[in-house]
Design a protein that fits this description.
Blueprint: E1 7-9, E2 15-17, E3 21-22, H1 28-40, E4 45-47, H2 55-67, E5 77-82, H3 89-103, E6 108-113, H4 123-136, E7 139-145, H5 149-159, E8 165-169, H6 177-186, E9 189-193, H7 204-213, H8 217-227, E10 231-232, H9 239-246, H10 255-262
Parallel strand pairs: 3-4, 4-5, 5-6, 6-7, 7-8, 8-9, 9-10
Antiparallel strand pairs: 1-2
Helix pairs in contact: 1-2, 1-9, 2-3, 3-4, 4-5, 7-8
The structure holds NADP nicotinamide-adenine-dinucleotide phosphate.
């Protein structure tokens, strides 16, 4: 069973709380209130991104929680991501400065390349910038998101540095066994994005398991991630759900229950991606 503050050790020796809060699609005000609610509920890991437009409010929530004596900066693990349009060696390092200014921090605990955008062919230079940022101490750990074996091979070949994490879409209906095994073979920790899926909380298998444990469907799905060693940061704009999502230490799933939820991959009504396929995804302004 995992308490909100339980950690996983990354390949660079740093630790990351396995359970966090995601803030994608939250308005700045919601990002502030959900971050405060998460810290109050014992969550110590916040996952934001330059592309989410709410780094400043996450940073303000962190500063206020520290000022109110709830936590210290060192208790917290803050992730942000480089937006696609800022890929490239110099642009990436400059964009990190902007993110740190927005967050009001001198370093992030984890900085991720948000998407590889293979067709723009800047991800290798971008990864070199990430290595520099780690050497500078402005990013304690560095990693990637939405990467797949071919692009992982290239950035590691060019730098000799393996990402600490790869953040990919994972939820019941898209358990991503292959990419998870690939990450594991390389010593990369896997983070699950959109962990609650879309509509899957109403799946009969999940409802049945929730009833067996006397917990909510969201809590079952969060445990499905945690019990498989995945790092997970569900998002909610509602403080009561932020607290519910943090309250998952009192039970764990049996191997059969984990397997039954994973088998939703084969249910055509619930299986498949809800986000873009990283091999095709191009978001943001094309680079000159
Ligand atoms: N790297 C990437 O490309 C990428 C892509 C997507 C997401 N992410 C990261 O992953 C995080 C999580 O993914 P996500 O934001 O897509 O979605 P998610 O956490 O899987 O699901 C969020 C949705 O679930 C609802 N919800 C939350 N808690 C609930 C509960 N206890 N019961 C019922 N419904 C609940 C929320 O509604 P309410 O707000 O109304 O509660 C919201 O509609 C993001 O915030 C972001 O940090 C990264």
């Amino acid at each position: 069973m995992t308490a909100p503050t339980d950690t996983i050790t990354l390949n660079d020796g740093h630790t990351i709380p396995q359970l966090g809060l995601g803030v994608w699609e939250l308005t700045p005000e919601e990002a502030y209130s959900s971050t405060r609610a998460a810290i109050a509920a014992g969550i110590r890991h916040i996952d934001t991104a330059a592309g989410y437009g709410n780094e400043a409010e996450v940073g303000r929530a962190v500063a206020d929680a520290v000022a109110d004596g709830e936590v210290t900066r060192d208790d917290l693990f803050i992730t942000t991501k480089l937006w696609n349009a800022d890929q490239g060696y110099d642009d990436a390092l400059e964009a990190l400065g902007v993110s740190l200014d927005n967050l009001g921090l001198d370093h992030v605990d984890l900085w991720l390349i948000h998407w590889p955008v293979e067709k723009w062919d800047r991800y290798v230079d971008t990864w070199k910038a990430f290595v520099t940022a780690r050497e500078e101490g402005r990013a304690r750990s560095i990693g990637v998101s939405n990467f797949y074996p071919e692009v992982l091979d290239e950035i590691v070949r060019a730098t000799g540095v393996t990402p600490a994490v790869n953040q990919i879409e994972i939820h019941p209906g898209l358990s991503q066994q292959e990419q998870r095994a690939d990450n594991q073979a390389r010593g990369i920790a896997t983070e699950s994005w959109s962990p609650l899926g879309r509509g899957v909380l109403g799946h009969p298998v999940i409802e049945k398991i929730a009833a067996e444990h006397g917990v909510t469907p969201a809590q079952v799905v969060i445990r499905w991630h945690l019990d498989q060693g995945l790092i997970v940061f569900p998002r909610s704009r509602r403080p009561e759900r932020v607290a519910e999502n943090a309250d998952v230490a009192g039970f764990s799933l049996t191997p059969d229950q984990v397997e039954a939820i994973t088998a939703i991959d084969d249910d055509p009504d619930y299986s498949g991606r809800i986000g873009a396929d990283p091999r095709d995804a191009v978001f943001g302004t094309p680079l000159a």
